[in-house]
Prior knowledge:
- The protein is built from 15 helices and no strands.
- By secondary structure, it is an all-alpha fold.
- It has two domains: 1-82; 100-215.
- The two termini are 30 Å apart.
Amino acid sequence: xxxxxxxxxxxxxxxSAWFSTLRDTALTTPTLEWLERVWRKTETVPGLVLAxxxxxxxxxxxxxxxVPAWNEILEQQLARTENPDRKARFAFVRPALSPDPKVRxxxxxxxTDVKNRRREPWALEGLxxxxxxxxxxxSEKHIPQSLAMLQEIQRTGDIFFPKRWMDATLSGHNSAxxxxxxxxxxxxxxxxxxxxxxxxxxxxxxxLFRATAHP
Length: 215
């Protein structure tokens, strides 16, 4: 259906919306192979011009899905990224895409250092890929520490950083065990815990709680 939408869209903006949705949801081998050909520029999408940020996003989405050439794709994308800021951001986020859990764990550990959170959009992008739904089972263990860091996140970051931090942490999860981690943390909160942060946790966990609610 999404491939048909890409083909039938009459304007570039609508075609881009269809393509982005397909890129972010694709799981089947034929579609991933097609997306890889688009990334390699051996196949084009008629009526859709992809810019450097589009190819970066496509490479990251292919990598998190563990396509056979994931490492080559990331290597080549880093090499062909010309914008220096995008190149630095790509290099920062890249460890969060590794299929090796130890590499991903090391990336999360690096975020406990405030210096590695200075560029907040970079940290959030890496955190989102770390907690991607396809990696949720292995990243679930990081939820308690992410929650415990929230007060420090508030002290050291932008006013909107705590909510974005929790969204990036929880949005990829839908398991009962992940929900229980959040509930257990909330139950242990001291009376003087900031109410704003408690509400942020509840807001970010809403979809998770709904997904695991008993019928």
